[in-house]
From TrEMBL:
The lineage of its organism: Bacteria, Pseudomonadati, Pseudomonadota, Betaproteobacteria, Burkholderiales. This is 1,6-anhydro-N-acetylmuramyl-L-alanine amidase AmpD. It is found in: Cytoplasm. Its EC number is 3.5.1.28. Keywords: Cell wall biogenesis/degradation, Cytoplasm, Hydrolase, Metal-binding, Zinc. PANTHER family: 1,6-ANHYDRO-N-ACETYLMURAMYL-L-ALANINE AMIDASE AMPD (PTHR30417:SF4), N-ACETYLMURAMOYL-L-ALANINE AMIDASE AMID (PTHR30417). SUPFAM superfamilies: N-acetylmuramoyl-L-alanine amidase-like.
Amino acid sequence: MPSATDPATARRGGAHWQQGWLAEARACPSPNFGPRPAGAVIDLIVVHSISLPPGTYGGPEVEQLFTNTLDWDAHPYFATIRGLEVSAHFFIRRTGELIQFVSADDRAWHAGASHWRGRSQCNDDSIGVELEGLEGERFEPAQYQALVRLCRALKTHYPIDHVAGHEHIAPGRKLDPGPGFDWPRLRRSLRWPLHRFPASAR
Ligand SMILES: [Zn+2]
């Protein structure tokens, strides 16, 4: 492993990892995680969308939800998810700001019942990335740029071989990030082969 303070290494990959934490992300540690199963091959990036209340951007509520500090009585919608304990590894705001809640070495709680590339329980061996947004709505150019940088950074450190949406790994149950997410754009930007993406990336 290169030294954590080696500036050449940090520049070369544009990614600097320390125990699963990415230096370029703002760390906001969540208690909602656990160990991955022994031998887990972390080869999947799961793209989600979230906003709280839905459709409202820029507030602290998503960070509060993922750190179990959301005031359930502050909005009628919050009462419908009262007590929910969830997390994702990363959150990308409309501005492109990148926030990390769980070490990518650990198991975050974002996928739920799920199945992809022949394996179930995708939380075991995936990285969850939440985009601030709403199912069916578009996402910002800054978010695609941040997501591309993040996917590349993940690929430098983990054997990433698949990218899919929550809607793909939990069809019929989840709809995010939805039709407003431009999969072909992500694929073109990453220049990764088609087989790594859902069919909608064609
Ligand atoms: Zn989701």
